[in-house]
């Protein structure tokens, strides 16, 4: 595809999204809650779209399609297990929202720190998130690099996509904080969904003659791709190892769980989660079917991450459609990165800086948070440039690390006996085990790092909590308030 | 409320058990659309409908 067309469409998209980001400043107030959480006044529709765009990233259209291309239908089960994990948001969503409003929490780390009455809990949570989310942000940048490079047949170098995505994420996060992120996310989510469905319908009806033809071709030419373990990766142990962190994604990833603070009401949160479920189901099916389609159309690709650019480069796909989809994927990547940047910067300012300087003014805290955004972006960009592994593998590795915050989160809401020492040790021990197994490639008894890390983390949390002193007064007050609030709102 | 909570947890636990067992046992030899592909779609629809039921009970 002509690289000038690519750049033209990207330029139009940038102009439109930047205009929206500026428009979002209208009526914006001052202060850190306004900047990082849009003052907890986000309506259900925008909340659903920003939740969707933040959750679904380059991983879906590039990584999941590639995973399906290479390993078959197990990729569908893997991603739908994630979607079923939204049941956790039914339990945790109202809890995050209620205590967020009552205690004024900005970040999930701050929530944990206060609940366990230890700033070190917040510090360790923030560090775990920084360590594991930066590679995840890098993955998104890589997705953009691959996509632009693949579509232009190498005319747009990998690093150009990388830098472009980094700059856009910084600008859109910077302009109005969560407001600009949510508005640009909404635009991007709509583009992502509409264009991806359009391409799928185009491929299915133009090439396969309908869904019947599509499945008959798959069943005939690639039967193994419709079963598990399938052609390779998805044996049961791998499936467990991959889905375990994915199932807990909606509470373990702070850029997603922070979204639980922002709806203006319970109705808005209901619309946010309900809208996301519908979006997610369609988007997952589309991504997986993209992967299958590419398998049939172009079976001999050197790298699975090239499946999507290859599909979009097929001669029977009109250039204009491919270009709009490219914008959709670009949007998917950037909407995730800017949310990660915003969340990490809020954690840096609130949980690292203010944790040690409680008298610091809110203005200073906010200024610091803003300046951290480009710093984290550049670190992520360097990681992306190094291309440490395939997109799907790196994404799961990041989520495996973040899984180590889950026992502490469960404990905060469901176990009065949980302690700060238990929370801190669980995250450190679990994180070290996961990181070691991930990078050494060792799989004891064939199980993946998330399984062993999760086990160590859970045991450490329980055992150390039982031998240390819990913050009983805070736990009683925190959980007592929740009990009343949940009952009033008929939430489980 | 506690009883209801455990009822729902049991239901979702059951769904997850099916998620991990059915495609690897009953459907492992079915290389058709109506094998693991259809199963995982039905599993997701069951989970989504159940979540919707819970969401619609919430009050402001």
Got a strand count of chain A? Answer: 0
How would you sum up the major sheet of chain B? none
- The fraction of residues assigned to DSSP E strands of chain B is under 5%
| Rg from Cα of chain B | 14 Å
The number of helical runs of chain A is 23
**Domain module tally of chain B:** 1
Please indicate the count of domains of chain A: 1
Detailed description of the structure:
The complex is a heterodimer of chains A (492) and B (60). By secondary structure, chain A is mostly helical. Chain A has one domain (3-10, 42-388): Sodium/glucose cotransporter (Up-down Bundle). Chain A contains 23 helices and no strands. Chain A has helices at residues 3-23, 32-37, 44-55, 58-71, 74-84, 87-103, 108-115, 119-151, 158-176, 178-208, 211-221, 236-247, 249-252, 254-257, 266-297, 307-312, 319-356, 362-386, 391-402, 406-414, 420-440, 449-466, 472-488. In chain A, helix 8 (119-151) packs across helix 9. Chain A is globular, with a radius of gyration of 22 Å. Chain A starts with a helix and ends with a helix. The mean pLDDT of chain A is 91. Chain B has 60 residues and is mainly alpha-helical. Chain B has one domain (2-55). Helices cover 72% and strands 0% of the residues of chain B. Chain B has two helices and no strands. Chain B has helices spanning 2-21, 33-55. In chain B, helix 1 (2-21) runs antiparallel to helix 2. Chain B starts with a helix and ends in a 5-residue tail after the last helix. The A-B interface holds A 73-74, 76-77, 80-81, 83-84, 86-87, 90, 94, 215, 218-219, 223-224, 226-229, 236, 239-240, 247, 265-267, 269-270, 273-274, 277-278, 281, 284-285, 486-492 and B 1, 4-5, 8, 12, 15-16, 19-20, 23-24, 27-33, 35-37, 40-41, 43-45, 47-48, 50-52, 54-60.
């Amino acid at each position: 595809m002509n690289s000038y067309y690519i750049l033209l469409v990207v330029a139009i998209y940038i102009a439109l999204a930047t205009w929206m980001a500026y428009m979002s400043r209208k009526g914006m107030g001052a202060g850190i809650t306004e900047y990082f959480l849009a003052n907890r006044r986000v309506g259900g529709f925008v909340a659903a779209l920003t939740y969707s765009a933040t959750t679904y990233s380059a991983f879906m259209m590039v990584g999941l399609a590639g995973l399906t291309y290479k390993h078959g239908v197990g990729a569908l089960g893997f991603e739908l297990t994630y979607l079923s994990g939204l049941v956790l948001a039914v339990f945790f969503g109202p809890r995050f929202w209620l205590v967020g409003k009552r205690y004024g929490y900005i970040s999930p780390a701050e929530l944990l720190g206060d609940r366990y009455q230890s700033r070190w809990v917040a510090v360790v949570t923030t560090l775990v998130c920084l360590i594991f989310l930066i590679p995840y942000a890098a993955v998104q940048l890589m997705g953009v690099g691959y996509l632009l490079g693949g579509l232009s047949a190498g005319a747009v170098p990998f690093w150009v996509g990388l830098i472009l995505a980094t700059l856009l994420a910084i600008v859109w996060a910077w302009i109005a904080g969560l407001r600009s992120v949510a508005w640009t996310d909404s635009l991007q989510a709509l583009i992502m969904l509409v264009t991806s469905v359009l391409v799928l319908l185009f491929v299915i009806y133009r090439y396969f003659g309908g869904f019947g033809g599509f499945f008959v071709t798959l069943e005939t030419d690639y039967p193994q791709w419709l079963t598990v373990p399938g052609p390779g990766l998805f044996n049961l142990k791998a499936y467990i190892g991959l889905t375990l962190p994915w199932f807990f994604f909606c509470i373990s990833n702070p850029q997603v769980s922070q979204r639980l603070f922002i709806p203006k009401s319970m109705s808005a949160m209901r619309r946010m989660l309900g809208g996301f479920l519908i979006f997610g189901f369609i988007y997952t099916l589309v991504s997986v079917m993209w992967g299958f389609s590419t398998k049939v159309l172009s079976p001999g690709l050197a790298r699975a991450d090239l499946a999507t650019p290859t599909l979009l480069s097929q001669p029977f796909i009109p250039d204009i459609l491919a270009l709009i989809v490219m914008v959709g994927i670009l949007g998917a990547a950037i909407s995730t990165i800017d949310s990660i940047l915003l969340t990490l910067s809020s954690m840096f300012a609130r949980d690292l800086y203010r944790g040690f300087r409680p008298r610091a003014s809110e203005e200073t805290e906010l200024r610091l948070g803003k300046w951290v955004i480009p710093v984290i972006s550049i670190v992520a960009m360097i990681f992306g440039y190094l291309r440490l592994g395939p997109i799907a593998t790196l994404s799961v590795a990041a989520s495996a690390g973040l899984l180590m915050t889950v026992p502490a989160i469960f404990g905060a809401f469901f176990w009065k006996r949980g302690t700060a020492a238990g929370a801190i040790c669980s995250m450190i021990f679990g994180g070290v085990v996961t990181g070691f197994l991930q990078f050494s490639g060792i799989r004891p008894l064939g199980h993946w790092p998330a399984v062993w890390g999760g086990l160590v983390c859970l045991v450490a949390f329980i055992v150390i909590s039982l031998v240390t002193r819990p913050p009983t007064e805070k736990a009683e007050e925190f959980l007592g308030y929740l009990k009343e609030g949940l009952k009033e709102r008929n939430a489980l | 409320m506690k009883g209801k909570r455990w009822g729902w947890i049991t239901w979702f636990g059951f769904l997850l058990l099916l998620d991990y067992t059915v495609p690897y046992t009953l459907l492992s030899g079915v290389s058709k659309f109506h094998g693991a592909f259809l199963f995982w779609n039905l599993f997701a629809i069951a989970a989504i409908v159940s979540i919707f039921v819970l969401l619609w009970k919430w009050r402001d």
